[in-house]
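$ ./design --mode recover --in tokens.txt
reading tokens...
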């Protein structure tokens, strides 16, 4: 509702102005001799509105009719230019209000007819439905109850045109908590609501179908709840989107019970059931049927444990019959089908193929079957070892089809399970892969307890090829050494699984020892006891770097750090020790010292020969094999021995000269007394002291 007349100014100003106008009108009336001051007047307004009725001056006051230029008409009581009391307002759009007014607004009891035909009759407050009222809708629905600010609020009853109704609590025009009853009384709900839908906790009863008490969400059973069906069966558990979903228990009037997982209204997952016959099943389900692994105790006393499919025994399983028979094998469509072993109560045993519950033939006999192939005696770590099984029956005839269940495994440093491939022609291919070297026992079994042929077989697993990264270093001198000491460490070859290799033939290595100055330290590498032995003599103290590669790959944790420390009084100690050493040992010490001094200028050129010369392949062979004659003319064959003797003598003399020169240099540096040997040194047959060259 709005005021019939626009007045400029705020509310306080308008009220004050109205009071002044009323006071002025009363004073004017008294001056003119009128006692009440009221007059029946016709007032025309600038906007085209017309008022006819009682007035106090220019103010509408009393009873009167105001016709607006828009076609809206109000007829009723006025007070100080405002609608107040009772009156009727008819709008040009068809809306009509008849009732009480206060301060120019609908207030109190009143009836409103809306343009669409809806009717409201009840309490009003400040132009709004407020309090208790009845709202009749043109399509037949009716609401009777409490209102607040033009909305359903509080207690009320909403009756639908078909006769069904809701009675309960409203808030902000929405049902909150209450009861719904259909016109025929067959559908009932009592509980909480949200946005016009069942939501929260509630009880729903549909006569002839079910009664549900529990959680709701968006008008559907959702959460936990209990449902009692018309036939007497019950379900108590979890729900989702009006379907049984999650954990739940279903019970029939006959006493059958299922308890376990549900998925979209069907048993699905893991669960157990008990039938009225006494049959009990515990295991996996799929879409309402036994499916997967499960155990069943039948009403006749039989027990089955194994695989199921679509509610029937299917796949591998064991059956213990009430009469004492035992069957273990394959099933299809609830019958023995495929390979299986049956132990009868009288002690007989059938092993073989079954077809729709009927046994067909004998299977492989473990005593007469054959095992052959390299994998029954030898294997390489990390590589597939293989052999084959030839199945034969109890008459030693070769089996023409597959189906026998062979189990193969190795026991040794660890357990290795082999794979068996059924070629479906009576032969089986076996493969296994061991990663740890050592001695194993190879077990070839039928089933789990019958050894085949001469099982178990001894198998030796050998290491694989060396793997550079798995190789390790040993010895004291790969991390620490002393200056001028001949040092050594070794490299142990291992395969990619960490198994030690028997030799280093397949492990070519490149060793560099880099001094603090960046120069390479000479190294010696030779095979010793299945390992690489690396020797070197550092000439300076400090931190060195050891780099070891094999075919371009770093070996072990290469590079390594090497710390070389001062040897202290190394020369004096060694010289003192020569008094207690043999001549051969003392010469070896001095030869090492001489070699170090010779290399003081940075290289060993000339140590083994006067100058580096390029050699032909024949020259290299002749040098490496001095005892093998090399001739170009057979007539010169008799000269070979003489020539070789002359060459050897010439080399001896040349070496003696070089050592003598070294000896002179050493005398100058360490003194003549350092070169004197103790009494009792070996002499030659003529009583002369042996030269260093003679002891070469």
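writing sequence...
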């Amino acid at each position: 509702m709005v005021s019939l007349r626009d007045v400029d100014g705020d509310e306080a100003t308008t009220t004050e102005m109205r009071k002044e106008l009323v006071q002025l009108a009363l004073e004017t009336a008294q001056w003119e001799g009128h006692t009440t001051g009221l007059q029946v007047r016709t007032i025309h307004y600038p906007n085209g509105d017309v008022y006819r009725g009682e007035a106090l001056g220019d103010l509408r006051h009393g009873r009167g009719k105001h016709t607006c230029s828009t076609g809206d008409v109000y007829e009723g009581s006025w007070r100080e230019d405002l609608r107040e009391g009772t009156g009727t307002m008819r709008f040009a759009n068809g809306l009509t209000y008849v009732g009480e007014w206060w301060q120019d607004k609908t207030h109190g009891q009143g009836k409103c007819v809306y343009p669409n035909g809806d009717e409201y009759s009840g309490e009003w407050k400040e132009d709004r439905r407020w309090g208790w009222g009845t709202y009749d809708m043109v399509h037949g629905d009716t609401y009777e109850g409490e209102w607040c600010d033009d909305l359903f609020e509080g207690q009320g009853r909403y009756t639908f045109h078909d006769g069904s109704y809701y009675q309960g609590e409203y808030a902000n025009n929405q049902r909150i908590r209450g009861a719904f009853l259909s016109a025929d009384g067959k559908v009932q709900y009592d509980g909480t609501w949200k946005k016009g839908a069942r939501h929260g906790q509630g009880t729903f009863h549909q006569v002839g179908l079910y009664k549900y008490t529990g959680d709701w969400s968006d008008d559907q059973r959702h959460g936990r709840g209990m449902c009692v069906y018309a036939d007497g069966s019950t379900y108590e558990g979890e729900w989702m989107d009006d379907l049984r979903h999650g954990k739940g228990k279903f019970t029939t009037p006959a006493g059958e019970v299922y308890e376990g997982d549900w998925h979209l209204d069907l048993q699905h997952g893991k669960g157990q059931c008990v039938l009225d016959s006494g049959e009990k099943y515990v295991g996996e389900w799929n879409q309402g049927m036994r499916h997967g692994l499960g155990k069943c105790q039948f009403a006749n006393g039989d027990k089955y444990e194994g695989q199921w499919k679509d509610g029937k025994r299917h796949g591998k399983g064991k059956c213990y019959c009430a009469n004492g028979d035992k069957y273990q094998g394959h099933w299809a469509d609830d019958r023995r089908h495929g390979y299986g072993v049956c132990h009868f109560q009288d002690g007989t045993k059938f092993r073989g193929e079954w077809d729709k519950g009927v046994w067909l033939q004998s299977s492989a006999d473990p005593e007469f079957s054959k095992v052959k192939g390299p994998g029954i005696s030898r294997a390489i770590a990390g590589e597939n070892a293989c052999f084959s099984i030839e199945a034969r029956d109890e008459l030693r005839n070769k089996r023409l089809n597959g189906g026998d269940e062979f189990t193969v495994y190795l026991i040794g440093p660890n357990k290795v399970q082999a794979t068996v491939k059924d070629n479906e022609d009576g032969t089986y291919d076996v493969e296994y892969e061991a990663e740890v070297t050592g001695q194993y026992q190879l077990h070839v079994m039928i089933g789990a307890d019958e050894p085949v042929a001469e099982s178990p077989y001894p198998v030796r697993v050998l290491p694989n090829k060396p793997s550079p990264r798995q190789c390790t270093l040993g010895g004291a001198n790969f991390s620490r050494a002393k200056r001028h000491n001949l040092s050594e460490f070794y490299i142990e070859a291992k395969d990619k699984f960490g198994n030690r290799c028997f030799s280093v033939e397949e492990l070519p290595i490149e060793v560099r020892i880099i001094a603090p100055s960046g120069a390479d330290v000479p190294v010696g590498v030779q095979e010793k006891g299945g390992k690489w032995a690396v020797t070197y003599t550092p000439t300076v103290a400090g931190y060195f770097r050891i780099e070891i590669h094999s075919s371009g790959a770093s070996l072990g944790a290469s590079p390594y750090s090497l710390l070389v420390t001062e040897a202290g009084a190394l020369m004096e100690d060694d010289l003192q020790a020569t008094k207690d050493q043999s001549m051969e040992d003392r010469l070896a010490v001095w030869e090492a010292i001489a070699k170090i001094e010779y290399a003081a200028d940075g290289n060993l050129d000339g140590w083994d020969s006067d100058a580096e010369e390029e050699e032909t392949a024949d020259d290299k062979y002749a040098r490496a094999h001095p005892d093998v004659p090399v001739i170009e003319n057979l007539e010169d064959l008799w000269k070979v021995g003489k020539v070789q003797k002359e060459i050897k003598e010439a080399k001896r003399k040349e070496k003696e000269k070089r050592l003598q020169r070294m000896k002179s240099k050493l005398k100058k540096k360490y003194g003549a007394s350092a070169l004197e040997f103790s009494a009792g040194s070996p002499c030659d047959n003529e009583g002369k002291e042996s030269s260093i060259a003679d002891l070469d």
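exit 0
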